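Hi L., both proteins are below.
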Amino acid sequence: MGQPLENRYSQQQPANVQVIVVLGGGSVGSAPDGTERGGLMSAGAARLLTAARLAKQHSLPVLISGGQVFSDGVSEALVAERILLQLGLPQEQIIVETQARTTKENAAYTAALCHERGYKNVLLLTSALHMPRSMQFFEHYLGEQGVKVAAYPCDYTLNPQGKFNPRWLVPQLQAFDVTCMALHEYVGMAGAFLQR
């Protein structure tokens, strides 16, 4: 069920890209993180590590999009910014968008920032399962401004080649989790189509 989502986009090389846009993937506001509070959930952490690696390799700025989704939470982008700084990315290479609470808002607020900064080529980085829905919104909102969006899926949950593994015959909680995430994405894609 998740394979068609994860295989829809391949990782595009950041040629001609002006900024890496990384989407938040959840945060826990009260989680201890050394002397700080607030941590990223696994999807958000995987996305951020991939973005940090690419930013360092290609000397690109990183635009982190993610607000405070729950009232008892914290802005995902602010937590991610702190972690990028701790990983050695300079402040001038980090752009923070803290209002978005949905993928649609990620795209809308990012489009406004790209317009302000004159970006015409962006690399969208999010989990492979989340990429098709994200591209629906980003191609719509950024495309209206003539901004090209290239996909860079990461945080794969399935083997991209789809080769059979005998352990798949044993029920696993992870498989149920991936199925739930895939269903969430399919419903979200239908909703995105209807919102246009």
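That was the first. Here is the second:
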Amino acid sequence: MTYIDYIGNVTRFAVELANAEDADELSPESRRLLTEHAVEQPKAGELTRLVALVREALQQIVDATPPDAIRTLIADYPPDLHLSDHDNTGTWHIHFARDGLAPGQWIGQVVAASLAHVATSDPGLTLGRCAARGCRNFFVDQSRNRTRRFCGNTCASRTTVAAYRARRHGPA
């Protein structure tokens, strides 16, 4: 695992958590991330405060405003940097939390450290907020030229169809 992969995986996890607004509907990839680190699946409502703080942190990164929420995350969930070879490949990498912690603690620590890196443009991940009307979702933009505008195909298609209909039928 490379540094950029680890930061990217955790950042995508943070975005998914913030967009879902709870841990009830985590993707199989996110559930696998927790399982790989011996972290139990969070219970419904267990992460409410943490998710709100993560959402605020993402907002501050996207808006390029002072990262106060990230400072709070770091203070409330201080990362525990250590070297790990949990996949037994002989390739050591940095982890931000010890395996087996309670879900809120582990998630808080890894997300705090990862978003601190993203806020300082290290390792160069780009976050965005969906441009579709009414969508509040964030996304990690890994497109070649970093010009992604939507959280997914559904929002992109809905926006494209609405623009087409507006052009075709004129103002309502």
